[in-house]
Amino acid sequence: MTPSPKARPRNTRNAHRPSARFKPGNIRIISGQHRGRKLPVLLAEGLRPTTDRVKETLFNWLMQDIAGAKVLDMFAGAGSLGFEAISRQAAFVTMIENNIKSAAQLKQNIEVLKAKHQSEVICEDAFEALKNKDESYDIVFIDPPFHKGFVMRAVDALLINNSLKPGALVYIESEASFNENLHPSLIKIKENSTQQVNYRLYRVAEN
User: Fold this and answer.
1) 92 and 118 in contact (C-beta within 8 Å)?
2) CATH number for the domain including 86?
3) Which of 59, 97, 138, 168 is the most buried (most CB within 10 A)?
4) What is the pTM of this model?
């Protein structure tokens, strides 16, 4: 009798790979004190770090404003924007990230850069975090998950909680199809786009 074939293990192809939910990767700091430094990140499902090309354009826009600024990264994710701000001598950077594992990785990377004096990570829902933090900022990054309506909610939360200093700069990165009119106190001063992404810089009216 011919022996029956052994049952094959399921998903043998991926048996020794990291979970599809959290794959390892890295981000690169493109300029400043930590220029060229690569930092490990956990690329969680749906996470979309800002590309180097977009990041370079953004920080060219911010070139005269980033040093000495108090910065908020509302949806920090991999920390691509927050760590770039640290490298370019922001006075202090607050990164909010509600994913526990991603937040832990951000804290580890702060240790690697020896930047605890210059930054903090808050592991909490961004909207709740703003309610609990009585601070105002010179620069705010809003780069949330796409297609969830978070941009409008984030702007409203910043205004309601008085989190923006007069003349503050607000960067918004969104899906290319996003075309909502924001609050009239936000004046658009820069805009660019790729096939997938629209990114804009606003200044808060001072009166």
Assistant:
1) yes
2) 3.40.50.150
3) 97
4) 0.86
Evaluate whether 165 touches 135 at the Cβ level (below 8 Å). Answer: no
Q: How many CB atoms lie within 10 A of CB 72?
A: 30
Name the residue with tokens 């709740």. Answer: 128
Domain range enclosing 59: 20-204
Q: Which residue has the tokens 């749906």?
A: 46
- 34 burial (CB, 10 Å; 0-12 / 13-18 / 19+) is buried
Q: Tell me if 2 is assigned to some domain.
A: no
Query: 186 vs 49, 85, 165, 193, CA distance in Å?
Result: 25, 22, 12, 19
The tokens describing 199, both together, are: 């990114």
Q: Is 57 a member of any domain?
A: yes
Tokens 């930047």, residue located: 115
pLDDT in tens, 133-142: 999 999 999 9
